[in-house]
Amino acid sequence: MAPSDPSIITNIEFFRIPPRWLFVLVTTADGYKGWGEATLEGHTEAVEGALLDLAERFVGRNADDIQAIWQEAYRGGFYRGGPVLMSAISGLDIALWDLKGHKLSLPIYSLLGGKVRSKTRVYGWVGGDKPSDVVEGARRRKEQGFGCVKMNATDALDNLASPTALLPTIERVRAIRELGMDVGVDFHGRVHKAMARQLVKALEGEGVLFVEEPLLPTQPSEITDLALTTSIPIALGERLYTRWDWRVYLEGRGVGVGQPDVSHCGGISELHRIASLLEMYDVALAPHCPLGPVALAACMQVGLASQNYVIQEMSWEIHYNKEADLYTYLVDPSVFAVKDGYVEALTSPGLGIQINEELVRETAKKWAGEKVWRTPVWRGVDGTLREW
Hints:
TIM Barrel; three-stranded antiparallel beta sheet; alpha/beta; lyase
């Protein structure tokens, strides 16, 4: 390729910024830029290492060749998949799509075939890792324009706990429903099989929108068994990293709502492919996204072009956002304004958002020596490890 080619990638940069995000910036010889997000909560340095490898491989390549770059990034290193590599690929892929959208002056959904809806339904988190004050949080969300929230089902649980430990979950769900709001209940993989069956049964008839990760993603057969016992849709997918990971779940017919994470599953390219697979099995698409504005915009761009897209997780004021929040690095936060439970389609070129590059660079420089976010480690009263 001639060095004068204006579409060659001249730089692949990444920025570690609070609260726990990893942004990617791709620049081409003609000055176009695209933002991506490679956030992998608790494993930032590992993804940075993978991004250095990708930068060595793809600086000098044509930024227009998104699929060729994706395939080489995935297949070219012999070892495939997994959260670290796929998060790095995700950040690069999202940035390339954003760059191409800016170059062509089109939103990404137009490059995916055009939008099938004019707005996106969203939900907000209430409570934290240890659920408390969720009702007051739901009231605040309702005032902010949300019609749906999601909460953690339980605190840490033993493999077999007293059934009374499940009663507060039911009480919280009922209180939120009395506000006239929909609610999703996230088990977070922390409820083991014996207790998960009891909790799902107890939630029957309470009007729950879905139960998320009722069991760990290593248990596809058990998840299918559980799905056959309940009418509540089973949602999962944040810890599945490629379309191949989805195969056993879709063929098992146990999933009602698919929740791939655009920053973990291979970016816009792979999220779009997974969306089509979910549609083939009549599974709703509701991307996982407790992350930053780049990941959220990427989810929305794919969702706007996907028939089976139903609702979007939105991390505004989520409990993890301590030093910065969803709107901190946006030039115009109004693009994510929530009205009557929806966000209007992002119609500007690329991702449809504008990142404050100067602020990102300044913040990353200041935060370079700071300790990164780590996944909590929970233990029971006897010292045994519990699922977070």
